[in-house]
Design goal:
By secondary structure, the protein is of the alpha/beta class. 15% of the residues lie in helices and 32% in strands. It has an eight-stranded mixed sheet with strand order 6-9-12-15-18-21-23-24, with helices on one face. A five-stranded mixed sheet has the order 3-4-2-1-5, sandwiched between helices.
């Protein structure tokens, strides 16, 4: 198997490790996390250092690729950009749980993870470094732009669009043809009947815009 390392060591990283192990395509050499001590063992793997160590680790560990397991969409996008600049030839792997169901004409971008029980129907396009979390359903001809995420139990109708770095939180439902702008957040258990613009926080049943958000606002 080809060697990879995981960026991040949070609970989301633990979930990503489970998916990668179940796929059985890669050998995880360890985790990268600048906030932990080197050689500390987390999720059964050693901390290898920080992102700054990646260029040397690529050689010493013969790394084939990397997976960025960071749940915060904005932080994940910044780490991916940093790695692209520091290690431009290092691929970002995808991870797809064996229990998920993807239609044959679905497109999945580099660095994306598809968790257990996810259903992605015909004609969907999923961008780079997206998260499709446990039991989520993306219906036909829908699009997830780069760095967007759908949380456990999210359901979309067909022809939906989830904007770049936007987060659809646990158990939310989007009806057909709903478009969510870039960098927006839809709150847990919301029912979204109408499209939402960029940089907004919306929730409720039906969902309404509660306030605007700044680009650097935390989404959780």
């Amino acid at each position: 198997m080809k060697n990879i390392c995981i960026i991040g060591s949070s609970g989301h990283a633990g979930a990503a490790i489970d998916v990668i192990e179940k796929e059985g395509r890669y050998c995880i050499t360890g985790l990268i996390d600048r906030f932990r001590e080197p050689n500390e063992v987390v999720h059964g793997y050693p901390i290898l250092g920080s992102e700054d160590n990646l260029p040397e680790l690529c050689n010493s560990l013969a790394l084939y690729g990397v997976f960025v397991a960071i749940g915060d969409n904005l932080v994940r996008s910044r780490v991916v950009e940093y790695i692209k600049n520091s290690c431009p030839s290092l691929p970002f792997i995808t991870a797809v749980h064996p229990s998920s169901s993807l239609a044959k004409n679905v497109t999945v971008g580099d660095g994306t993870i598809v968790m257990s029980g996810v259903s992605v129907n015909a004609g969907c396009t999923i961008g780079e470094s997206c998260i499709l979390n446990t039991g989520a359903s993306l219906d036909h001809d829908s699009t997830m732009k780069d760095f967007s995420s759908i949380a456990p139990g999210v359901v979309t109708g067909g022809n939906c669009v989830i904007g770049q770095a936007s987060a659809i939180c646990i158990g939310a439902t989007l009806v057909h043809n709903v478009h969510i702008g870039d960098n927006s957040i839809i709150g847990a258990a919301s029912l979204v009947l109408d499209s939402m613009g960029p940089y907004v926080i919306a929730y409720g049943s039906p969902a309404k815009v509660i306030r605007k958000r700044a680009p650097d606002d935390k989404y959780l």
